[in-house]
Each structure stands twice: as structure tokens, then as C-alpha cells.
Amino acid sequence: MEKSLEEQKEALQEVRKAHRLIYEYQDWVQSLMLHIKSKYGMNLLTAKQRFCAYHQGVHDYGDLRVHSAEWAWDYLQTYEVEYYFDYKSAPSEEHILYFFVLQVTDTGWHQKRGDKCKLDSFEEAEKSHSVFMFYAQCTDGGGPDDTWKTDMDAARDELLGQLKRKPDENEFEPYVNAGKSIYAMMFPMECFASLEQTDEKLKEFREGVKRDLDFKL
């Protein structure tokens, strides 16, 4: 829909505010991820975008191709981000635990699974959530070469399915796979508003990993 000059000017003012708000939000997320890395004694912290296409350099001057098939989500990479914290070996060195956190800024698309390019096919923002998913997988052997090979989608979809069954809940059941090699929990982002609350959730997840995977994170 076309806008008048004044309407466009007001809309762009809101865009500037939104970008500054997103910066503050992502700065908070990054600080939180670094705290988690320190608290769990992990050796690495890397990330990749999940909702949009994963891009690597195609030219010396840019990572994105700009053409009619390119979608706007590729420029909004923090909608969904996966953080990899490396792995820990058990004292016996027989098992390895991989640890990830998935940042889902807006569950709106996942709750409806409509057209990603049509915002009216998303769940309303007021009925959507912003969540972190903590994911641990225990395997035999492995090492640095296994980075990014872990598939979080089954756990993610199972956890997000709880939003459809209990849309007003703030406490969710953990996900444990049949072989008891994967343990995942979903937390609303507001649960990490303070350092004390954050450490409580980190303790809760660590205890779950110990209980169900018999591994000390």
C-alpha cells in the first residue's frame, strides 16, 4: 500500500526506534550467552542464524546476494539464532556432552507455520512468546569436527508444541528423547531478567542434565 510522504516519514522514525531497540535486545542476549559460557565452564561460543538462510561470503564486498528472490528475513538474523558452546568430556572420556542454546525471538511463525513472507499468517505478537531453548546431547566419542551436526529441530518442535496446548503457561516440561541421550528445556526470556533468576534457570537445567543424562554439565 502506498503511503503519503508524511506517513512514510513517521514509519521510518518507528523503524529507527525499532533498530535501536533490537540492538539493546541483542546486546543483552550476547551478555547472557557469555555469562552462560562462564557459568558452565565452556570453552567456545559461536553462533549461526536459523530462521533465515545461512550465508557465507559470496563476494569480497558482501555476504548477501540482492535479487527478487531474496527475502527480508535474511537481513534480520536474530529472529532465531543457535549458539554452540563446544562440548565436555566425561571424566572417563567415554562420553561427550554437546551444549547449545536456541534463541527464538518470536514464536509467532512456529505457532501457526504459515507463509514466512506474510506476517498476517503469524500468530499475533501479543499471543506469541520469546524463548530460549537449552539443549544438551550426550554421545559416544566425537569432538570439534562434530560442530553443528546436532539437529535441534525435533526438540524445538516438541517444546514449541507445548505453546499450542498451554498458551498461557510460563513453565514447560523438558524434552528427553527415547534413548535418553538428549535433554532440552524451554524458558521464556523474561525468566532471565536478573542475574539471580538466570542462575536459578542454569541450575535447573544442569540438574536436569545430571538426572536424565547422568552427565555433569
Describe the protein in words.
It is a single chain. By secondary structure, the chain is an alpha+beta fold. The chain has one domain (about 5-215). The chain has four helices and six strands. A six-stranded antiparallel sheet has the order 1-2-3-4-6-5. The mean pLDDT is about 85.
List keywords for this structure.
217 residues, alpha+beta, 4 helices, 6 strands, 33% helix, elongated
What count of structural domains?
1
Discrete helix count: 4
Structural class: alpha+beta
Strand content: 15-25%
Shape: elongated
Low-confidence stretches: none
* Through-space gap between termini: 52 Å
From N to C, what is the helix and strand string?
HEEEHEHEEH
- Care to count the β-strands? 6
Helical percentage: 25-40%
In spatial order, strands of the major sheet run 1-2-3-4-6-5
Largest sheet: 6 strands, antiparallel
Q: What average pLDDT do the residues reach?
A: 86
Our Rg estimate from Cα atoms comes to 19 Å
Summarize, please.
The chain is α+β, with helices and mostly antiparallel strands.
List the helices and strands and how they pair.
Layout: H1 5-39, E1 46-49, E2 80-89, E3 95-104, H2 108-112, E4 131-140, H3 153-165, E5 175-176, E6 182-188, H4 195-213
Antiparallel strand pairs: 1-2, 2-3, 3-4, 4-6, 5-6
